[in-house]
Amino acid sequence: xxxxxxxxxxxxxxxxxxxxxxxxxxxxxxxxxxxxxxxxxxxxxxxxxxxxxxxxxxxxxxxxxxxxxxxxxxxxxxxxxxxxxxxxxxxxxxxxxxxxxxxxxxxxxxxxxxxxxxxxxxxxxxxxxxxxxxxxxxxxxxxxxxxxxxxxxxxxxxxxxxxxxxxxxxxxxxxxxxxxxxxxxxxxxxxxxxxxxxxxxxxxxxxxxxxxxxxxxxxxxxxxxxxxxxxxxxxxxxxxxxxxxxxxxxxxxxxxxxxxxxxxxxxxxxxxxxxxxxxxxxxxxxxxxxxxxxxxxxxxxxxxxxxxxxxxxxxxxxxxxxxxxxxxxxxxxxxxxxxxxxxxxxxxxxxxxxxxxxxxxxxxxxxxxxxxxxxxxxxxxxxxxxxxxxxxxxxxxxx
Length: 399
What we know:
Elements lengths: L1 H22 L4 E5 L2 E5 L1 H56 L3 H10 L7 H14 L3 H14 L4 H14 L3 H14 L4 H13 L3 H13 L5 H22 L2 H10 L2 H4 L2 H13 L3 H14 L3 H9 L6 H10 L7 H13 L3 H14 L3 H13 L3 H16 L7
Antiparallel strand pairs: 1-2
Helix pairs in contact: 2-3, 2-4, 3-4, 4-5, 5-6, 6-7, 6-8, 7-8, 8-9, 9-10, 10-11, 10-13, 13-14, 15-17, 16-17, 17-18, 17-19, 18-19, 19-20
């Protein structure tokens, strides 16, 4: 359409010039030294215009010739980028289909021609990981880092995930600690670091990460609270296993009240109190907890803390039986407390009822002692045999 308009305008201008020439053709004389050119105004004008058009076309030709190599290069690059993009799509599809080797080949082959080599190398690293090729995986991650500026955190996160998937926990820990230095506020880095610390039982480090998890809202508040309990309990458990009573006391004193009231934390602390013959304190803490909550684990320990006059303990435990008549742990504790007070008939009744709701080798052992006191020798042998069978079969429920 544009070309037609130009041709129409040219015809109109030409016709106008011819019409003007009929009235006044004009006269033009060009002279340079001994050289001269004489012509009409119309001819000169047409020649001048043709010269301008020829000059314009020549200039355009020169510019086009100069730009042609770059345009060819751009076209070739565009084709390479397109092929690389297609290869990325096929590679990701192949990766999801589980054809790891083919996916790795497609992704790595076209990474150098892609506008997004980072995506190629990260996906290729995952494909290599699936083939247990850790060295190739690390090579792809290095290339991803080198080819894309500003992708340190992204590459590091993928590297840590792959190391964790390969059970390379020490390497993953080093990677995540470095990432935390680079991006201390990154939520996902904090989350991965917290999980790894927990897996490695590095509970002090978990405590160190908790404030950031809470501040950055990385986890829901209830999960952060549960994690706080786990961290405190883990530290307490580690101190218990080392026999470090001073550290256990320090941790208990420093722990928030809500943590102290948790079943997990209290159970470990009770074990420490038992080991150091602080039964009165253990008994008081268990009673305070069971006054508002219930715990099979704590009622089990309550039956093993017998010191001095235990009739008040027995009376209190019997009140708990009103709401939990089928609880084997409570019945076992009642049997032990009855034994401590030499109430053999009552002890036998509680222990037999406990066995009715859940057989355990430990319960049979206590029952055998009671039956001995009651002079039931034949039943004693049977109780010991059943207790031994359960112990050998490892069928005892654990608390």
